Amino acid sequence: MREALDPQRIAEAVRDTMFANDRASQGLGLCIDAIGPGTATLSMTVREDMLNGFDICHGGFVTTLADSCFAFACNSHNEMTVASGFAIDLVAPSRLGDVLTARASETSLAGRIGVYDIRITNQRDELIAVFRGRSYRMKGRPVVADLPLPG
Which of 15, 114, 128, 143 could form a disulfide with 109 if both were Cys (CB 3.0 to 4.6 A apart)? Predict the structure, then answer.
């Protein structure tokens, strides 16, 4: 009989499997700084190729950072979960060389539906954006096949 893994070890295994196949996050140079059940922290350094015509980070890159953080947090329970929608408010610009950090927390998880809030800050802990994602869990479909499913 296989020993049951604790939720933190499950989240770490899911992180490793997901990131190994996540070409978008890898291509943007995203780093996974922390992972836990229903939580994730990712960071990204604003590069030259991420700047728009005003020399600020394009909002699409900030959104992608938040969306990737959302994905790692909502899949951390080892049940394949996809976004069903999200909203983002960009509240301040970020510039070349800024290190943006996205922190996701699970606000609600009931049945197949989850709500996650993500705050994006810069290296001075100034708020850059807030993101709220809604997720849909695909019951019975693990992210990592040889790990236990929730519940």
Answer: 114
CA–CA gap between residue 21 and residue 119 (Å, rounded): 25
Which residue segments constitute the domains of the chain, with CATH numbers given? Answer: 7-137 (3.10.129.10)
Q: Helix/strand/coil (H, E, C) string of the chain?
A: CCCCCCHHHHHHHHHHHHHHHCHHHHHCCCEEEEEECCEEEEEEECCHHHECCCCCECHHHHHHHHHHHHHHHHHCCCCCEEEEEEEEEECCCCCCCCEEEEEEEEEEEECCEEEEEEEEECCCCCEEEEEEEEEEECCCCCCCCCCCCCC
- Alpha-carbon distance of 71 to 74, in angstroms, equals 5
CA–CA distance, 56 with 40 (Å, rounded to integer)? 25
pTM check: above 0.85? yes
Residue whose structure tokens are 């993101």: 131
